[in-house]
Input
Amino acid sequence: AQSVTQPDIHITVSEGASLELRCNYSYGATPYLFWYVQSPGQGLQLLLKYFSGDTLVQGIKGFEAEFKRSQSSFNLRKPSVHWSDAAEYFCAVGAGTGANNLFFGTGTRLTVIP
Amino acid sequence: NAGVMQNPRHLVRRRGQEARLRCSPMKGHSHVYWYRQLPEEGLKFMVYLQKENIIDESGMPKERFSAEFPKEGPSILRIQQVVRGDSAAYFCASSPGRQDLSYEQYFGPGTRLTVT
Output
């Protein structure tokens, strides 16, 4: 069965510092992996996705993520965090061919301090 | 190009009433998905629909919940005889009909249901 684990419930970083949010997945086949961001009271916005090919994917707002099959991980990174990055971040895995539902992790809340 | 639209944004119902949540997908999208987000949790898949068809409802509770996506008009998620445990944010997402883009789901702002 598919599952996604985001081990960090809450992370606090200083503005300008680097950021890494962890995501581990469990899935029997080649996964489709996503990172979404949710601002308070808002819907989810897609940051980036991995389907195949280059394991380092670039997304919007300066985010990137690296797929590591050996570690079943898809960690999100940003070299320099901005105050506007404060939000909830969700990692998700897409089920296999013919199934289009996404399985989400429980999220990591990011706080950015000046 | 307007995004996914959901209404109402906030809905308050008393226990035992019915809740109807509406979702209009992005223009050109023929696939709709409904997710539920309980407080302090991630989103949980409920149902996947195409026009006039339910493709996957494996995440739907067996009773009181139903969904439709008619040929014309928005997709509707209907909850009958609501209970306090139904209080949550309900998100709709849509995607194009092409298989190679089917995982690119675009989310609406959600409907926050409160059952009193």
Q: What stands out?
A: Chain B has no helices and eleven strands. Chain B has a mean pLDDT of 91. The CA atoms of residues 6 and 26 of chain B lie 11 Å apart. Chain B touches chain A at residues 4, 31, 33, 35, 40-45, 48, 55-56, 58-59, 91, 93, 95, 102-110 (CB under 8 Å).
